[in-house]
Amino acid sequence: MNEEYKNKWISQLKKGTLPFIVLSVLRRNTYYGYDLINEIKKLTDIVIAEGTLYPLLVRLKNENLVSHSWVEQESGIPRKYYQITEEGKNTLNAMKDYWTYINNTIQSI
Amino acid sequence: MNEEYKNKWISQLKKGTLPFIVLSVLRRNTYYGYDLINEIKKLTDIVIAEGTLYPLLVRLKNENLVSHSWVEQESGIPRKYYQITEEGKNTLNAMKDYWTYINNTIQSI
DNA sequence: AAAAACACATTGTTATACTATGTAATTTGT
DNA sequence: ACAAATTACATAGTATAACAATGTGTTTTT
């Protein structure tokens, strides 16, 4: 078993799965970045580095798949809450379909 | 629906799925590069560019997941046939496990 | 004879995960 | 009361990989 290759592969696999997972989680609720990391860790055991998530959220925002709004806190720093857009929901559905297709394909080989 | 983003996403998803698919196909049989492209197209409808596959096969070779041997043809250019190694089979099994895990996770969100 | 297909390969471009680092407020531990 | 850890945002640099474009030479089809 080539453990090192497997780890590198998992990192590459994340390039496809992370946007998918983030959008899926944001369809359930709104979250701010730092919280998303913890929520995804809790839900999936997948650890996302901050240096991965923040740029990813910026990209999703630029693509109009999510929007954000700053929310003041009673104490502490304001939080940037992200919500999925209609376009985000539709795109997520298409991604879901493709995922199902690729999963079936892989299982059949 | 953001079609452009979806296509970009599929391209990123391939970074995880292609090595997995190539190893899976090579577990069934030996193939040479050019033939692999057609075989995978036939099996999965996924189109792999030559500029993607050849470097991928080089990487898998460098990681000892596959080996290759030149086979002379009665007519035409010799073909470089690839076969999966024991290490390749074991790594593929580990990849399969991780894939199952990530698929279950995504379905559950 | 020309065009298409076969079969290998590399170069340049673009996208993205991850490490390291930075800033600043707040909370916890002693 | 002070130090350390946590919360919360973000960016810069590095490594990896898909893909288009291009290249070489042979063989088959039209």
Automatic annotation (TrEMBL), chains A, B:
InterPro entries in UniProt: Metal_resp_DNA-bind_regulator (IPR052509), Tscrpt_reg_PadR_N (IPR005149), WH-like_DNA-bd_sf (IPR036388), WH_DNA-bd_sf (IPR036390)
Domain Transcription regulator PadR N-terminal: 22-93
Name of the featured protein: PadR family transcriptional regulator
Organism, as annotated: Paenimyroides baculatum
